Amino acid sequence: MSQKQTPLFPLRQGRHTRQAHVDLPEGTFEEEHARQGFFGRTTHLYRLHPVTDWTRIEGPLRPHSYDLNGLKPSAEEAIRASMSGSTEAAFAPIRLLYNQDVALHWVAPSAMDFFYRNADGDDVYYIHTGAGKLETTFGVLHYATGDYLVIPRGTTYRFLPAAGDQRYLLIESFSEVTIPDRNQLGPNAIFDPAMVDTPELEAYDATPREWAVHIKREHAITKVYYPFNPLDVVGWKGDLTVWRINVKDIRPVLSARYHLPPSAHSTFIAQNFVICSFLPRPFEEEEGAMRVPFFHSNIDYDEVLFYSAGHFFSRDGIGAGMMTWHPQGIHHGPHPKAIPLSRTKDRTDEVAVMVDTYRPLKATPAAELMENKNYWASWK
Ligand SMILES: [Fe+2]
């Protein structure tokens, strides 16, 4: 995924700009054709029409949009068919999109009277709405809206949410989740590792009763019972633990003169996928510098965007709690109104989580129930 390729000398044909994303030739729309997300070999194409101005699409490849706010009660059968693992009322992640490397789920937990352990992968939660207490083998962590919770594979845990609506996006990774190298930005950029919170050991419920741990292994649940609370850890040392960072503590890198690619907003990295955070930030200032994402086909990655808060300036008709999936091979880019609109504003207040996957994703029946089937035509 990250192997270096010898760059070719940039070749040129016809009308183009020498500095990508700046001073596009009059009347053109820029398209980026790039490998390896946004850090491989790249060519920019200057077109007379937005490449998303199709009239019809026949066949399975198309952009998708899902409204996760609308889980319908009638959807029970489809939801069950989409489950992988726990189906307990208090903790029943609904799988939406998945491949061999990663699975995205929508979870609305209530207070769990059992513990959960994922033996298949690391669990990264993004808290879209809600707050509460996460009890783990390593101690207790309090969480709130905008938190990412990173739970290493094999950790025993349960959610004890506070009152109110709980809606979490679960990004289940079948390889270890780490943070990307900051290189020349230095170790304290984007977020200072000192902003990370880890669990603290507290007095736990030592009631002698039967305690259950629901272990997910190859997507099947095994229940193991103990006559004592299995969170009976009284001390630990080491560098493998649960951790938390809030999106408010992530300080996006930006340039006043150049639209940085999404890869500049990478928060987590794992095998064959990356998690990026798009956060409130000023737009590019300089006249001529593009302010909206360029059209691209991102040919090596499927792109999923979960929209959590704020105004999503590049996508019309997309609100909080919605998710889009743009598979590799078909183009995507800003909606028509976004380009002139971006010129009238000086900043974006969006909070969105992006998951870019190297291998193609598949949608579950539950995702299809929440799909807006006309999304492909929304660029018209
Ligand atoms: Fe993209």
From TrEMBL:
Coiled coil: none annotated. The keyword Iron applies. Residues 107-243 form the Homogentisate 1,2-dioxygenase N-terminal domain. Pfam families: HgmA_N (PF20510). InterPro entries: HgmA_N, Homogentis_dOase, RmlC-like_jellyroll, RmlC_Cupin_sf. Its cofactor is Fe cation. It comes from the Bacteria. Keywords: Dioxygenase, Iron, Metal-binding, Oxidoreductase. The keyword Iron applies. Transmembrane segments: none annotated. Belongs to the homogentisate dioxygenase family. This is Homogentisate 1,2-dioxygenase.
